[in-house]
Amino acid sequence: MKQVASAGEFNVSIQSSNLVVAVFKADWCGDCKFIDPFMPEVEEKYADRLTLIEVDVDKVGEVSQEQNILGIPSFVAYTDGRELVRFVNKLRKSREEIEDFLNKALAVYHTLHDTPERKE
Fold first, then answer.
1. What DSSP character marks residue 86?
2. Which one-letter DSSP state was computed for residue 21?
3. Which of 23, 24, 34, 86 is the most exposed place for a label (fewest CB within 10 A)?
4. Please, what's the b/e burial string for 5-33 (b: 16 or more CB within 10 A of its CB; e: otherwise)?
């Protein structure tokens, strides 16, 4: 997962016409460490349909504040600089919940970007 090192890099990343999902995390976050072992497999599974980027809330705090990220890990889907949908709560997130969210984000994205014959 590509790590975003600045607010500028974040803003460039979310301007993509493709689906970009920002994962807001921190090194000290236990629930973030919980998802670390399976996130590479999740990323590989969705690699042809979306891009995951990692935003460390301590290193790029201004982005977290601008995006109103109150709990981590949080997942926010963007396209063309616009937020589509978010998965934000205080609870630990399972692989199944994360994949459900990514599927939801893809459905919203396809509603906006696909022609009828390309919808899944």
1. E
2. E
3. 34
4. eeeebbeebbeeeebbbbbbbbeebeebe
List the one residue out of 67, 91, 84 whose CA is nearest residue 11.
67
d(CA 33, CA 108): 28
| Spatial distance between the Cα atoms of 101 and 84, rounded to a whole number of angstroms | 12
Centre a 10 Å sphere on the Cβ of residue 62 and count the other Cβ atoms it contains.
10
**Nearest alpha-carbon partner for 52 in 14, 80, 88, 26:** 14
β-partners of residue 10 are: none
Q: Which residue do the tokens 């600089």 mark?
A: 81
Per-residue pLDDT of the chain (120 residues; tens, 9 = 90+): 999 999 999 999 999 999 999 999 999 999 999 999 999 999 999 999 999 999 999 999 899 999 999 889 999 999 999 999 999 887 889 999 999 999 999 999 999 887 554 444
pTM here?
A: 0.91
Locate 115 and state its tokens: 């022609």
Alpha helices in 49-120 (DSSP H): 61-66, 95-113
